[in-house]
Amino acid sequence: MSFTEKHEEISKQEWMDRLNSLHISRADMNRLIMNYLVTGEFSSGSSEGFKEAAEKFRVEAGIPMNMDTESLDERIKIRDAIQKGEIEEAMALVNNLHPELLDDNRYLYFHLQQQHLIELIRKKDVEGALQYAQTHLAERGEENADVLNELEKTLALLAFENPEDSPFGELLHPSQRQKVASELNSAILEVENRESTPKLANMLKLLLWAQHELDQKKVKYPHMTDLAKGEIEDPK
Amino acid sequence: MLMDTSDMICDTYPGEMVGREYMENLYGEDMDRVLHSVVKLKNAVIGNNKQKFHMMSLGVVARLLEFIQNERAAVGLRTESAIVLGSLAKGSQANVKRLVDSGVVPILLQCLNNSNLKFVEGCLRCLRSIFTSQAAPVELLYTDPGVVPHMLDIVSQSPTTQECVCSILAQCCKTSEHQGLLYSNGVIESLAPLLASKMYKVQMPALRVFCVITYMNQIVSSAVAAASVAERPLPDLLVELCLRDKSVEMQMSSAKCLTYMCRANALSSQDSKIVYKALPTLIRMCKKDRTLEERVEGAETLAYLIEVDLELQRIASYSDHLIPTLSEFLRYPSTQTTVMDLKRLDYDMKHSHELKAAALMAFASLGANDEDIRKKIIETENLMDHVVCGLSDPVVRVRLAAVRCLHSLSRSVQQLRTSFQDHAVWKPLMKLLQNADDDMLTVASSTLCNLLLEFSPSKEPMLESGAVDLLCDLTKRDDPALRLNGIWALMNMAFQVETKNMAFQAEQKVKSQILAALGTDQLFKLLSDPDVNVLMKTLGLLRNLLSNKPHIDHIMGMHGQQIMQAIVLILEGEHTIEVKEQTLCILANISDGTTAKDFIMANDDVLKKITNYMIHANVRLQIAATFCISNLVWNEEEGALERQMKLRDMGVQKLLQQLLSSSDTVLFDKVKTALQQFT
After folding, report:
1. Membrane-spanning residues where (chain B) (predicted)?
2. pTM (two decimals)
């Protein structure tokens, strides 16, 4: 360790040379991509699409079949059920796959029940909604004060002629279904001891963190500012 | 999150009709429909405590148990039934108790013999939920001796079996018999590989098992220390689980396991795994950023780890601000406490006494052997006040911890003379002694003993608050440790510091009070106590009682006969050198008195014994005997001439001249002094 801090200046060329001297195997990259395709957030497009892509990729890249895809089918079915608003179907599927999950995650269970309630409200089944709330959701409110809050918001929708235009209208938005589906998916992955974020995401976070650390120490080096393009700029 | 909702039965419960329907369908002929109903039932009760309670009230458990036990029923039906029971076990505590009362446990344990994995997993999950609840019927696990071996057999079949078996065993190993049973069934071999599992929910319960089996068990601890996983020694694996990238509970449990192994002598206290891993981890667990439960567990385990090792005490005392950190426990909650949320704060307020007790225990261990550490502890701001407060805390756990702490600190002579005076520790201590159970009594009386070592004005009030009677009572107890403490404390009480001449009156009062309270009968009974330590301290007491001229004459005047009798008995009996020496010293003290001298001179038997001891093989006895003679012939005393004559006739002077050839300087001096007295 030197006593004085020398801030070395490094040129972009030198930096690129150093980077290029590092070897990342193709197999590792393929696994990262595979992991991304089968994990966590299926952002856009149908899940079936992702699954097909994953399977094709797997075959093309010659990646051996592993645990990553084990519950994929079920998780896709569950997500699909939620996207269609068939919450009770989704709950039955989860109970089949992991019977302890909803018992152990009461808050998640509440969100599923809440979603079912929202679907009933969407269909304008007022009586059904009230009965469901009374039978199933009153108990949830006793357990948790946050739940009571969210429950009240949901039930308030019933007071409006056009609930979509009410202050809580976002609950009827398809993105709400998305939220619940993601929450459930993460919980399932956690129970299966899998990470719910793709490793690729972690790697990018690591990159950003490393750059931040260097910036803190006032080191001058070529930054990667556009992650999507992966391009490295000249040092400033 | 499993909340304990109240099991209120609502008369107009909307689900009632539905519940009855479910029940009816369970009794159908069509097995497919029955299975379908069980699945519907499952979906109804998962996540719903009220439904769980409701269905149980309708008697669903009995029907499900029928399916489960029926070997001819379809395995799918049996499995789903087990899963439903598993869900019922995740309800309120009252629910779980009802399940247990319905006889679910023995049946499920029996079903573990089945060959279908999914079915077994369903049963195991239910059992795990039951055994990890407050209503856990631990003994039921051991009723059938085949159960535990079988569980260890099937443990490696799947992650679920791993997780559940470990969780169950971790909760049910409560006694050394249980430990022995698990050990003889190969628990170490079966579960060690699980410590290296990639799944946290398997690793953590496995680690807990190793904690409970090593606790105070040398055989198991040694076996664990010698075990290995894939050629890595198990202790190394445990150290890995201590690292900071692991969860807090994992770090705590692995540090605990290493601690237990160290205390059970399976790991040296100087082993780097203890000094550089377990100890610092436990100290870290005491930090402000940890929850109350973590800090309590950390401090208690730390106290246990360092309790009997000076080196560890030293290291701990200067590690990582431990002492200030622990003293924060005593001030909890303080202005420095960050309020996370109201519920948490409420819980913490109710449990702050646990923090106090844990800190006091840790201080007790820290200050057990080293004077510098004690000083550091006592000099910590307000600490002594907290200790003294602790002595009168409403919670017994805190009081006991405070006494232990005080006991450690009272081993410091310097502190006895200074801070203990200032803090009037004896008052709450006396109060404690009055209503103490045996554990408390042992430690508290030891502490009192130490406190009484040093002459102080506070002895007077101690007398007035009944210390003497209390201590005399202790000398009558069956437990030799208590008798010892009692007599030792009395001995210390009677010890007189020669320089305090103002103390004469007070000390006489103390001595008389002791003798009066103890009674000569009890005193002499103690002089024939089977425990040699008790005997030694009794002799010490006697010696202290007879330590200055006026006292000697006074006491011998009242009890001389009996005292002489007792002395003769001891000199004639089979006793150690130390005992004989003490006895001779008492004789020497008696011979220092004025009128008391007559008791010895008039007793030829005793005189003969003294002369024998003058030529005894052990020089310490010779010295004591010579000292006695020296006092008897002291020529400044009245009647010296007659005494010298008598002793000369007995050949004492000749003996003394013989002893001039002794190589022992102390003896030589005493002999010379004695000879000089003769005219």
Report:
1. none
2. 0.80
